[in-house]
Amino acid sequence: MKCVWAVLAAMLSLPAGFAAAPPAIAIRDAHVVTVGRSDLPKGTVLLRDGLIQDVGPGIPIPADAWVIDGAGLTVYPGFINGLSTWGIPPEESERAPAPGTGQHASEPRVKGPEDRPETNSFERAADLVSPSDKRLEAARAAGFTTSATFPSGGIFEGLGAIVDLTGERGRDMVITQPIGQEVVFRVRGGGMGRSFPSSLMGNIAYVRQLYLDLDQYKRAKQIYDGQPSGNRRPEYDHELEGLTEAPRLLLPANEAQQIDRILSFGQELKVPFVVYGAHEAYRRVEALKQANVPVLISLKWPEKPKDGDPRERPDFRELQMRDQAPAVPAMLAKAGAKFGFYSDGVDSAEDLKKAIKKAIDSGLSRADAIRALTLNVAEIYDVSDRVGSIEKGKIANLVVTKGEAFDAKSTVEYVFIDGKQFRPDKNGAK
Amino acid sequence: MQRIFSWACLVTVTASLGAAETVLIRNATVLTVTKGTVQNGSVIIEDGKIAAIGKGISAPADATVVDANGKYLMPGIIDCHSHTAIEGGVNEGTVSDSSMVNIKDVIDPYDINIYRALAGGLTISNVLHGSANPIGGQTVVIKLRWGKTAREMIFEGATPGIKFALGENPKRQGYPAQSFFNQGPAIERRFPGTRMGVEEVIRQSFTDAKNYQATWREYGDRVARGEHPIPPKKDLRLEPLVEVLEGKRYVHAHCYRSDEILMLIRVADEMGFKIRTFQHVLEGYKVAKEIAEHGAGASTFSDWWGYKIEAYDATPYNAAIMARKGVVVSLNSDSDELQRHLNLEAAKTMRYGGLSEAEALAMVTINPAKQLGIDDKVGSIEVGKSADLVLFDRHPLDGFSKPLKVWIDGHEYFDRDKDLETRPEFERKKKALEEKLKAEERSGAEKQGSENASEELRLRSEGIGR
Description:
The structure holds two protein chains of two kinds.
Chain A: H1 4-11, E1 24-32, E2 40-48, E3 51-56, E4 65-69, E5 73-77, E6 79-84, H2 90-93, H3 125-128, H4 135-141, E7 144-149, E8 156-159, E9 161-164, H5 170-173, E10 174-176, E11 181-183, H6 200-226, H7 238-245, E12 249-253, H8 256-269, E13 273-277, H9 285-291, E14 295-298, H10 316-324, H11 328-335, E15 339-342, H12 349-361, H13 366-373, H14 375-380, E16 398-402, E17 411-417, E18 420-422
Parallel strand pairs in A: 1-4, 1-5, 6-7, 11-12, 12-13, 13-14, 14-15
Antiparallel strand pairs in A: 1-2, 2-3, 5-16, 7-9, 8-11, 9-10, 16-17, 17-18
Helix pairs in contact in A: 6-7
Chain B: H1 2-16, E1 23-31, E2 37-46, E3 49-54, E4 64-67, E5 72-75, E6 77-82, H2 112-118, E7 122-127, E8 135-143, H3 150-153, E9 161-165, H4 168-171, H5 195-224, H6 239-245, E10 250-255, H7 258-271, E11 277-280, H8 288-294, E12 297-300, H9 318-324, E13 329-331, H10 342-351, H11 357-362, H12 366-371, E14 389-392, E15 403-408, E16 411-415, H13 416-461
Parallel strand pairs in B: 1-4, 1-5, 6-7, 9-10, 10-11, 11-12, 12-13
Antiparallel strand pairs in B: 1-2, 2-3, 5-14, 7-8, 8-9, 14-15, 15-16
Helix pairs in contact in B: 1-13, 5-6, 5-7
């Protein structure tokens, strides 16, 4: 045991993994990967009041600080999941069916865009997150402290938030919001589904229509506010308000032609956007780089389907995708394109580690991998002033490993979130 | 099936890169379609265009020379009715009028059917929304530039279209009793359920479009007067219909029966728009005069019918009869398979109806080009037109003929010999990749196994166990 206070915590019978907050914590003489600046082979990180009070080699350790001996330990900024529902308990997101999903026969059929199908643009992840989400423990065990969390369900999923993966209550988790609006294309019944839209082109047309509506809504409000007298007031529009607030749009594109499509569609919508998915981005590295659009790469690498027909022979493109998708991060890094990772349903600590390791094995440098899990995501969401690197004044989110992160034999020893220490349960964190 | 993808991949790269070179195709039987046949002729391609046609003409020294050895050169085949290369659903069948959706948004340039069609001499497709609703989605004309992006496949300058559909398909009400193919929950009935209803949807949509047009005109007038009114909403459903009213977008109307063909002509006259083509139009022979008078074209099938009630009263003479009555007629595929041998569909009009060779070839070249409004650029071998060409080993109207080479804009996009040559190499590559992935899978599983074992050991040694 490296520190006495973990034992103390156990004696006080606090919830497993958490310790009573000491006034300050110093991780002394550890290998510190700051990400923002150069590595410190022997540095100390001082945490107080949920913030990084100081970092550097040989900084003085205050008398009230509890000390962790950093020998043999590496300190990284806490990992940030670029896009997930972490923090929103799955039962919470299933609670209300999105209006117009057409999944329930009792619901009226959606007759067109005017019925605003599957539009939850006004939902706020910040209002839905709760520390009771059982996935958080595994996430922390994998070194994640933070997530760009979005509600799920619908074509417009709602407004995301940057959340910390622990807290007393949901509201403690929220770092900032809204950070964006996530779009998912819901292709159902090959276009012959029950409610509009059910084809890909229908989904695209709907998103396009909503942004045209938004344009008009903004202009109408502006004109009306300038001269209310003699003009009919524009109707308050719940769904469009959700879009107005989003500083960026997250658009899905996995295959090469989808990337082409989304790059031009995003530009057409005239909103800042992020592409997520990107497994076939190895065919579009240059295009992504030139478009200067950030990319969130799914960590759910394409694989042979578990229960697939063994006689089935996938086509060459599919095989190439399985082979090359994990090399996408390395290729984007080499090209200098901005990218981060997102969990895409991979929730267990072991699988997350394995997935990231696969990218490293496919040529991504460890430094770039760490950056893609920290500062890059923070920059994509414009929150690098508070998270994403080990820097004085930033939120005290850290992950401390024995051995280098993602080495087969490395282990996550501590995770700090808002300065609160968490020790992964090595047995339970699967 | 699998095999065909092989050469596709490898040939792509050679086909599509770089500026178009100068090519001399000599010793060919040149079937120009519009200007007769040139025996032992030559065609020179410069900058992607046909620069010269004739006998004994010479090309610059740096030209690539293709000796056709008397084989047959014809214009690239054009399909006026295709649903190829559409990603994520051919229909937005959930609504009666889905004119807000656009096929242009969902072209999948990796669809192998593009390459297979190319191998059959097809160079241009009019890619249409399906026929689930009276007014379907917007359509797009593509050139089969295999290996390029979706955007690069779009035929620049071709007038966009919109799909209409009459009769049984749209009146199936979105498949009432059950959902499509009995998947998922039962589907509520969707208007319309009758041919009357189909007519009503079209009339209503154009009425809406006219009101919409008027609203925007009024807004424009007020702005012109210096007022600052609140702008009306842009409506993606009505915008394309206004374009139809303004003659900027072509209507391609799926139909079978003569009564509904006349119905649409009446509605079009009443609303003030033109139908560019009637599609399938199996009973067109009954109302060919009226179709010709309206100025519409007809894009039909050669000799297949009877697959549903409205398709019974048909004849293989349909194309020839309509052509003789002055209708511009084309033969379409409506199918990823049939699009690979439209030349043979054309040949059937000689058997049924006694059309000449040139007239038969026109059915899949210059006539569909006219129907799509691109006949000034493609559809025949004429100086100044795009070098979209197919070299056949026999006369293309011969049942045993097959394409040897296909050019689009002067680029070679298909070469049968190269294709056959690269197949073994491709198969080898694919096998190697399969082996590699299998090996990775095995080593992953082993590693996993040993990791689990060592983890268990560690836990046991710590006296924890599981």
